[in-house]
Amino acid sequence: MWQRSTYAWESPALLGRETEIVVHGHGGARVLAFPTSMGWNREWEDRGMCDAVGEQLERGDLQIVCVPSIDEIAWYDEGAHPRARAEWHARFDAWLHDEVLPATAARNPNPFVITAGASFGGYHALAFATRYPDLVSRAVVMSGLVDIRRLTGGWTDELIYFYNPGEFLLHEHDPERITALQGLDLILAVGREDTLHQQNKALSEALWQRGIGNALREWDGWAHDWPWWRDMLRRYVGGHD
C-alpha cells in the first residue's frame, strides 16, 4: 500500500478558512486532483481513482494531491452575483498557486506537475493548467466543462473572463503565453454522447488553429462516470496515447 498523508492549515488566500489536502504517494510527478462538483478531498480515494494508479503510487512514479472544492460558495452559489462567485474562485486559485503547490513542493520537489479532474473537476484542471502553463506540465481533463458561462447565465466580465478557458484561450495573443501553452501536454477526454463533447471538440480545434497542440480523445457513448474516468486516468496520466 502507498503512503497516505493529510495536511491542514488556515488559509490566508481563503480568508482564514481551514483547508485540508490528502496526499497519496511518497514521490514522483505531483498530480493536483480536483473533485467533481462541490466534492471533497476524499472523493478520489472513495471512487477508486487512486486505486486505478496504485502501482505508480507505490513505486513513487506519481503522487496524488487531493484538494477539496469550494464550489458551493463559488461557481455553484446561485444566490450570489456571478462577480462574487468569480471572486471566491479567484481566492481558490490563489490558494492552489500560493499555498498548495509550494507546500507540496517542499515535501516533494519533483517539478513535473499534472492537473487532473472529471466533470466540473475537469474545468478546474483545465483552468488552472492553462492559466499557469509555466507551472503545469500536463492536464488530464476528463468529461470537462470548458465554458464557465454555463453557470453564470451567460454573464461575464474581466474577472470571469480570465478564469474561463472557453473565453481566454480563444483570444490569447501574448507570444510568451502561447509558447508556454504549446509546451503543455493537454488531454481532453470526453464521450461522444456527452453533452460536453461539442465544447471540448470546439476548444481542441480552436487551439490547433492557434498552433497550440492538444490531444482530443473521444470515447464511445456517454463515458461520463467513474468507471470511465478510472480508465481515462490510467490511460492518460502518463501522457496521451
**Strand segment tally:** 8
Derived from helix and strand composition plus strand pairing, the structural class reads: alpha/beta
CATH superfamily of the domain at 69-236: Alpha/Beta hydrolase fold, catalytic domain
> How would you sum up the major sheet?
8 strands, mixed
Task: Explain this structure.
This protein is an alpha/beta fold and 241 residues long. The protein has a domain at 69-236: 3-Layer(aba) Sandwich (Rossmann fold). It has 10 helices and 8 strands. It has helices at 43-46, 49-52, 54-59, 82-107, 120-131, 158-162, 165-168, 175-182, 197-209, 226-236, and strands spanning 4-10, 18-24, 29-34, 62-66, 113-118, 138-142, 185-191, 215-219. An 8-stranded mixed β-sheet has the order 1-2-4-3-5-6-7-8, sandwiched between helices. Strand 1 and strand 2 form a beta hairpin. It is globular, with a radius of gyration of 17 Å. The chain starts with a strand and ends in a 5-residue tail after the last helix. The model has no long low-confidence stretch (mean pLDDT 98).
What are the defining features of this structure?
241 residues, 10 helices, Rossmann fold, globular, alpha/beta, eight-stranded mixed sheet
Entry summary:
With 241 residues, this protein is α/β, with parallel strands linked by helices. It contains ten helices and eight strands.
Per-chain topology:
Blueprint: E1 4-10, E2 18-24, E3 29-34, H1 43-46, H2 49-52, H3 54-59, E4 62-66, H4 82-107, E5 113-118, H5 120-131, E6 138-142, H6 158-162, H7 165-168, H8 175-182, E7 185-191, H9 197-209, E8 215-219, H10 226-236
